[in-house]
Design goal:
Blueprint (H helix, E strand, L loop, with lengths): L2 H13 L1 H4 L8 H27 L7 H38 L1 E3 L12 E10 L8 E2 L9 E13 L5 E6 L5 H6 L13 E6 L3 E3 L3 E2 L2 H4 L6 E2 L1 H4 L2 E4 L5 E4 L5 E3 L7 H6 L6 E8 L2 E11 L7 E4 L10 H12 L3 H7 L10 H13 L6 E4 L4 H12 L5 H21 L1 H7 L4 H4 L5 H23 L4 H22 L1
């Protein structure tokens, strides 16, 4: 009940004729009126207590707001946990990896470096020729480790303002266009258009390393392959011959009697042109974990370097690092789930799959050309967004705001009664003191989360954040003392 209802009840009761009959002999009407006011106030208080028991739980007077606060708090804590853990893992990965990395000359595979993060600089040497799915490219031999082939068709396409126009395109013609105007349908083609990238099945790196596909896929400095392919290229069937033009592309027209210059300057519907580009040649620099190859021939391979809890025995640490590196991303995501068989934890498991399965913190990088160790880690930090910037602090502020709102709605009254806060703070009118306590609790929870995620990798930093959490817990007492 509000203050208005209390005043009305007291005034009505005290002014009633029945209340005037309470004046006892020898007592003034003022004494009787005072007694009646106290009695009415007691009845009103007991009625409020009964209403609270009927419409609320414990200290809660509005169950709907309480549930909303619980939901906001759970969402904020979950988001803070995965966000802070991802940042902590990236930071520890960079600092620990930089301190433990070994720079190896000439990319030589030494047995004593197995299980260590290594910095290698050496030459890429494809051992087997690339087999393109559409063209016979035997002339490339072992000259490149990756081949990108783009086939384009001269056809009608939807241009700007939905106007049809003829141009080179690698996208298949839309069914709606050919159905709308059958005369503009692209004639049958001997091969499919589009872009394909083919890797060599075996690429050696340096002295004794087999380059895994994950590193080979990072070779992206493509250059024209026409100097190696020559003046003409055939499809696997040998029926279609593509001729080289001065622009570095190969052209084809149905009928067989054509010149590349004629097609390039005056294309017709159904003409094809192909661009061949190659990469993974020459020198490269790698940051990865050295491990023994599964082939058992004594050669070494390279795996992702991932974090493991601190182990002071070097041999055990190497074993754990190699074991963690051989796990698939799906396996890592499953290990990171909370109650994998429970549907109640679906949201948490989804976030865990995104953070661990998709964005796994690891060092597994290839840079084309020679790069120093410091240059590699500088580029790695930049690409991994390790340095906390404006975006990270903005996200933290949003999460802290949501957590503070949830705690303020659901738990602030209970916290005010449980904490040994001074009477002056409890009796302060308004909601400012409760908001202060809620904000301090949010900061304490966030600091505790950061301490927990740092503990397996950096114990010292974990204790610093734990001390910060304790400080935020006692901060309300300090502010109100």
């Amino acid at each position: 009940m509000g203050m208005i209802r209390k005043a009305l009840l007291v005034a009505f009761t005290c002014l009633s004729t029945h209340s005037l009959s309470l004046v006892k002999p020898g007592h003034s009407p003022e004494v009787a009126l005072t007694r009646e006011v106290e009695r009415v106030k007691a009845n009103v208080s007991s009625e409020e207590d009964s209403d609270a028991q009927e419409h609320g739980i414990l200290w809660v007077k509005n169950t709907g707001k309480f549930c909303l606060g619980i939901l906001l708090t759970l969402v904020a804590v979950t988001a803070s946990w995965y966000f802070e853990r991802q940042l902590a893992r990236l930071e520890c990965l960079m600092s620990i990896g930089r301190s433990m990395c070994r720079s190896i000359q000439d990319a030589k595979a030494a047995p004593e470096n197995s299980g260590c993060l290594v910095h290698l600089s050496g030459d890429l040497k494809p051992e087997l020729p690339i087999q393109d799915p559409r063209f016979a490219c035997q002339k490339l031999s072992t000259g490149c480790g990756r081949l990108r082939t783009q086939v384009q068709v001269y056809q009608w396409v939807d241009g700007r303002n939905s106007q049809l126009q003829q141009q080179w395109s690698e996208d298949p013609q839309s069914f709606s266009l050919s159905r709308r105007d059958p005369s503009k349908k692209t004639p049958p083609l001997p091969l499919a258009s589009g872009t394909t990238i083919t890797n060599s099945t075996s690429v050696k790196f340096g002295m004794g390393f087999v380059l895994p596909r994950g590193l080979l896929d990072q070779c992206s400095s493509f250059k024209s392959a026409s100097p190696l392919l020559g003046s003409e290229v055939f499809t696997h069937s040998g029926k279609e011959r593509f001729l080289l033009h001065s622009d570095g592309r190969y052209y084809w027209r149905a009928g067989g009697d054509f010149a590349a210059e004629k097609i390039a300057s005056e294309p017709m519907l159904g003409d094809l042109r192909v661009t061949f580009e190659m990469a993974a040649t020459g020198r490269a620099t790698v940051l990865a974990l050295q491990a023994a190859d599964d082939a058992g021939d004594g050669s070494a391979t390279l795996l992702p370097y991932r974090l493991v809890p601190q182990v002071y025995e070097e041999g055990e640490h190497k074993r754990l690092v190699v074991q963690e590196a051989r796990k698939s991303r799906v396996g890592l995501a499953q290990e990171d789930q909370v109650c994998p068989q429970s549907r109640l934890c679906f949201s948490c498991n989804f976030v865990a799959g995104c953070c661990t399965g998709v964005a796994t913190p690891e060092i597994f990088r290839l840079y084309e050309g020679h790069q120093t160790l410091d240059s590699c880690f500088s580029k790695l930090r930049k690409s991994s967004s390790v340095d906390v910037g404006l975006g990270s602090w903005s996200f933290r502020l949003v999460v802290l705001s949501v957590m503070t709102a949830g705690i303020h709605i659901s738990f602030s009254e209970a916290i005010m009664h449980m904490l040994p806060i001074s009477r002056s703070m409890t009796d302060t009118p308004g909601t400012v003191p409760r908001f202060v306590v809620s904000a301090c609790m949010s900061l304490a929870i966030t600091s505790a989360i950061i301490s927990t995620v740092f503990f397996p990798y950096k114990v010292g930093k974990a204790f610093v954040h734990l001390a910060a959490a304790a400080f935020f817990l006692v901060l309300p007492l300090i502010l109100m003392s």
